[in-house]
Amino acid sequence: MLSRLGFPAVGRHRAFVSALAIDALGGGIWMPLSLLYFLRQTDLTLVELGLVMTVANLAITPLVPLVGRLVDRLGPKSVMQVGNLLQGAMFALYPLVGSMVTVGLVVGLSTLGRTMFWGSNGPLVTQIAPPGEREVWFGFVQALRNAGYGVGGLLASVALTVGTGPAYDAVVLANAASYFVAFALMTGVESGGRPERAEVRRSGFVVVARDRGYRLLVLVIFLYALTEMTLNVTMPVYFADLLGLPGWVPGVVFVINTVMIGLGQGLVVRSMTGAIRSRVVLVAICFTASSFVMMLAADAFSVALATAVVLVAAVVYTVGEMVAGPVLGALSAEAAPDEHRGTYMSVVQLGWNLSSAVAPLAYASLLDLGAVAAWSGPLVLCAVWAACVVRLPHVLPRASTRVTNAAEEPSPESTPV
Q1: pLDDT tens digits for 265-320?
Q2: Which of 5, 125, 270, 399 is deepest in the core (most CB within 10 A)?
Q3: Domains in the chain, ordered, with CATH?
Q4: In terms of C-beta density within 10 A (0-12 exposed, 13-18 middle, 19 or more buried), how is residue 76 classed?
Q5: How far apart are CA 137 and CA 128, in angstroms?
């Protein structure tokens, strides 16, 4: 079944894949309730919650590079498992908190656990995926994550429908349990090893800072992440407040996104075979920018027609995400030296964290200025993103290589897991 969808053979990596699936399911259960839970279960106001959650998340950002160092020293499996335990423990404490301080502590520490998980995920995927099949594996992980989010979101809707305190707590405890299950599954994953500590101490972030090609790649991924944030930040508000569309539209757009990626990501990656990586990303930018133009055009139509336009735009937007994500993930892994991959990829994770911090304020400010501003900003981002991608092959040779979707000869970095 997986092969028909264009995904890799799981085989001996079943425990790792199962752990990722369980983690994604728990994340999907929690995402729709992340702010609503504390609003319902504590006496804090919306403004207080927004402030404490923003501060908690920003406080963790400086620790992201340290996670990369831990990955290089301890190996990605160990760091991922610690991240799972930390998230599970924090979510188990959620029903016990009530003040701004305690909410900030559990949110901040659970964010740290999440950062540890994603900071080690890329290096671990790189260890199990042979060179030549990296796009396939990163696409598979992206599809698995979205499928888990979709199923988890449906389960969360049950709690939202019931609307009682015990129902909300049940969701939180189920999410906590998912992290402990993921930890247990990861114990069956054989580690791919780690570099010599002496080599790690000699360089680290100095090497990343001097790597022009990787610096530009991080900027490309940061711009990609910012355009991805429109799905969660700009679109729901735009649909409801500026277009006045029916309340079900944001939910359907999210379902379109998760289902398309869950079922079609592998086929999209297979269709890239033989294409130059940088050109693939440029195609993705065209899809993304086109979807933003369609979103803006919807402002000129009636509610019924605007609804149809934004649903089609959601499909176009998702295709852009499906095309860009696996290639950028593979490039971020392969362009990093083996002994410093954790450090390198932690800088990529830092870019994602910064985009999460910047996007809400930036996009909210644009939305406040109207439809033209709301989508002109993302379109400018697409233009800058494209300019950076055009430059990328000149400083990062791997960006000009082709997607093969076929394993190369075994190498030291493709240790079985």
Answers
A1: 888 988 999 999 999 999 999 999 999 999 999 999 999 999 999 999 999 999 99
A2: 399
A3: 1-194 (1.20.1250.20), 205-405 (1.20.1250.20)
A4: buried
A5: 9
Taking only the tens place, the pLDDT of each residue in 336-364 is 887 788 888 888 888 887 887 788 778 88
**Extended strands (E) in 45-156:** none
- The span from the CA of 141 to the CA of 153, in Å, is 18
Q: To which residue do tokens 């050109």 refer?
A: 279
Amino acid identity of residue 222, one-letter, is: F
Cα angle for residues 131, 136, 142 (degrees, 5° grid)? 125
In degrees to the nearest 10, what's the CA dihedral of 335, 338, 343, 349? 50
Residues near 28 by Cβ (< 8 Å), separated by ≥ 6?
148, 149, 150, 151, 152, 153, 155, 156
Q: In angstroms, what CA-CA distances link 147 with 137, 209, 262, 397?
A: 15, 36, 5, 33
Yes or no: say if 194 and 75 are a contact pair by the CB < 8 Å rule.
Answer: yes
Q: Which residues of 9-39 are buried (b: 16+ CB within 10 A; e: fewer)?
A: eeeebebbbbbbbbbbbbbbbbebbeeebbe
